[in-house]
Amino acid sequence: MGAPAGGFASPRGTAFDLGVQVWREQSPRANVTLEVSARITVREDGARTGNAAGARHGDLAVAVAVDLDADRDAAAREALAETLGALPPGCAYALIGADGRTVYPFDGGWATASAASLRDAGFTTGTRQVYVDRKAWGPGTGGAGVAGLLAAARAQFDRGGDRVPPVRHLLLVTDGSGGLGHGPVPGPAGGAGGAGRGGQGAGLAAVDAELDRCAGRFTCDVLALDGPWEPAALLAVAERLHGRATPVADRFAAAAEEAVAARHGSAPELPLEIVLRHGVRLVGLEETSPGSHPLPAREVQGRPGVLRTQALPWRPGTSTYRLKLGLDATGDPLATDLQLAALSVGDSHAPVVVRWETRPRPRPTPPRARPHGGPGAREPEAASATPAEGGLAYGAEENTVVVAGAVELMRKELKRGKIALHDRRHEEAERRLGAAAQLAHQLGVEWALEEVGRVAEVVDARLGVVRVHEAVDREELKRSILHREGGTSAAPEAMAVEPTAFITFDCHRCGRTAGATAQYCIVCGTALTGARR
């Protein structure tokens, strides 16, 4: 199959390292589902430094959207002016006020960053029209909210068409004063002010719907100042639009400058391309780090079997993805390396190769959370920490496939448990935090147990039994939800345990789970050692 044809060249000064891992030996069944882990590292190769980096500022368009209370401390307004003043020279920029209207430049278009224009924009931040001004709009009203500002940014980036630079980024600065927003963005001056308000569920639905429209069109970083913002909404914005949501103080200019600097050092957006062998289909694709969300991929017109994601922003660092491939393998040759797919980003390509065997090595079963802490909860079946002599030795690639899913599930349960606790859904919080604690215990991940312990008493980590604290600092809880705990890597090297300490197997005849050192299946008696090499 080779490298995908018609791919996209890596931008000058940017290098991509793409690697895939898959459990190589598989049984040739009629309905096989393969799980593939892809790891992409982006690095600057030294060709873009100093003045060369400055030459790229013209590729950047930044929209700064403001959702702050007009009566907030003056430090926030000063920080907003400093943020605009620190924009890289030559980039295109616009300032969007809390009501969804572009307040600078005054014609509603785009300005080019220069000393004079940035000074004028800085003066604009001192006017109340930029902020959520309830005194002017009346009691019970507010700004466009998160959904309205996303819609306003989308319209702003569309304004100018192809003349808007290719690297498009939204910096959303919020204290939650405008709410989530689920009404119309205000019209021209003199029209109705503010978006409609209502229940949180409707607001979250409006944010989700607007994110569907914005995905792939621009990226977004969120700076969250102390206030009544909803952590689930800000987290969704950052993950879906490939950015970060960061809790900040009123003097946030340094954090804003860092976020913009990361973007103007980014490569222009490129898609992830997948080429499938005839008969192979893509069952699912999701980003697992640094975000965690499904990633749609569509077939390229006129090229059967070639799929592309939306254009993704690539900046220095590592991202991981999980693919599921489905196929009928009954007609394939045995004991032969077969390439089922190939992945490509920029100039980097990687094949997905498997080998069909009638008696493949038993597949490891990753740690899994048992029923959470209620009556009948039982301890997971233990696996020996050290394989018996002559037992199975595993390669790093195979361990990565086994472990990465469990680590990511642990992160998701921890995050969802905190969100449930913030929303006062205590039963769900205990269930999810208990699952995170149980997985952390099996994986040997101490930081995750410590995170659970900040908001709940860990009664029994082995059984996943926790009890949330009666009193929780809700502001600190909100801030912790926005953080990605334990760093950005979901790879097993970040864990303090050898992978063989928790690997188990499913018997290839009856499906019964067995420990890593088991010689025979305790249900059907099938020898488990013969297939181990």
From TrEMBL:
Q: What is the organism of origin for this protein?
A: Streptomyces cremeus
**Which residue ranges does UniProt annotate as crossing the membrane?**
none
* Official protein name in the record: VWFA domain-containing protein
Which Pfam family is one of this chain's hits? Answer: VWA_3
Q: Annotated region Disordered: where? A: 354-387
Superkingdom per UniProt:
Bacteria
Residue ranges constituting the VWFA domain according to the UniProt record: 62-245
